[in-house]
Fold this sequence. Notes:
The protein is of the alpha+beta class. The chain has helices at 2-21, 40-56, 95-105, 149-159, 190-195, and strands at residues 27-35, 64-70, 77-84, 110-120, 136-144, 168-174, 180-187, 210-220. It has a single domain (21-224), classed as Alpha-Beta Plaits. 28% of the residues lie in helices and 30% in strands. The termini are far apart.
Amino acid sequence: MRIRVAILAALLLVGSAIAADSTPASYARIAVLRPHDGDTVDFEAGYIRHLDWHRQAGDKWVWYGWTITYGERQRWFVYASFGHSPADFDDPVAPADDERDNIVNVTPHTEFVGNAMYEFLPDLSRGNGEPQPTARLELTTIELVPGAAVAFEKALRSEQPAIQRETLWYRMVAGGNAPRYVRLSPYASLAAMIGATSDQALPAKTDGLVTKTTVEILTLRPTMSYGLAPPRP
């Protein structure tokens, strides 16, 4: 009987591993716009008109929009979409028409300064890869020394069970200097974010692997977002 139980347990473990390995990868697009000085109002109005084009075109993607409130890029705009397969990026909604509307409504008022693709890393994270649309978001960008990615992820993976709140890690696939990672941490308020600062420190095992860490606080712009669901309770 004990042998049978042991065999059954082993089969269950194998089955779980196969299921985990078959989980489809999830990717995100995170891009940055820099509104022209003195042109913020017109930029926001144009961007909202552009989102209306997405609505009329029947875009199935969800688009988050944030303003950077605290950081060297203050007043810049971050827009992002999460939870995609690689094939999704090969079939966006009406690319030519999207570009035409962008040229009319967005590009006269801003500069496109960043556009990157990231892979969500579930074994390093607490959450499902799509951040809660909370009022505030801590965006941490981390650049590593060359060749340090494996050791960095190993250090984060060892600390993952201790994560108490939503913390989402992504590895950059394309769009900037590599190796680069970003961490998204949603918060209901600035007070809650400040109160949790000690929880967001990197593990000591990452010492010597990181060349640059940038922490920015973003503010969600619901009117400059598209298709967002209410935050989960």
